[in-house]
Design goal:
The protein is mainly beta. The protein is built from no helices and 24 strands. It has strands spanning 4-8, 14-20, 26-32, 39-44, 50-57, 60-66, 74-75, 88-89, 98-101, 104-108, 110-111, 115-119, 127-130, 140-147, 153-159, 170-173, 181-182, 194-197, 206-210, 213-217, 225-228, 234-237, 242-247, 250-255. The termini are far apart.
Length: 261
Amino acid sequence: TSNYTYILTAGNPALIYKIAHKDGAVEHVYTEVEERVFYDSMKFWNDDEGIAMGDPMGGCFSIIKTYDGGKTWGKLQCTELPDFVPGEAAFAASNSNIKILGDQVWLVTGGAMARVIYSDNRGSNWQIFNTPIIAGGEMTGIYAVDFYDKDLGVIIGGDWNKKEDNKYNKAITRNGGKSWNLLANDAGPGYCSDIIFIPDTNGQELLAVGTPGIWWSGNQGQDWKQLSDKGFYTVKMIDSMNGYLAGNNRISSFKIQRKQG
């Protein structure tokens, strides 16, 4: 957020630390001890309100929220959340399986199912949307989600064990996630752990990254061009031209250069 950086550990014990930008002070703000605990992603709507998602425990996904800038966190009860399918989980891949936009939040799953868990009121109520992304294996499903606006969104993932397979691993929605259509099936990138819309491109340009490399699309994922075979886990844009990539012992900055005409 504007004043703090938050760090969430994945496995048992799950811990959240809050680091102040002004002086680097580190505060331990959350602990959850349980053999099955495994958190996957954390995002903030603003300086005060944030959400984190973890694998299912006790009949539902683990979802915690804060309303006071991370000082305290509360866990949603299973009665407030949709049921999960046994074997359904999520991936702590790149902090990429939560997308926040306005009051909306989309969470994506993998494993036995590849679904979208959606709320239009910051997690007070939830809906489940099915997707055509590959599922059924321990490492299959959706690894990343991004939305350009409230309607236009993309998801990507695949099979971590078959990274070259580019079938049933990327899809697009134009109705907020209610329905999804496959993109460039049997073409373009295979397994990827992050996908983003490039800002200020009218929702046309996409970047997808994974350990096999970096791909770019200029037409909402219909066609793709591989930019690099260097592997990365996650990508973030500062503006429509400049961004950062993070991978295994590697952080890189980049600039997009577009040909005129």
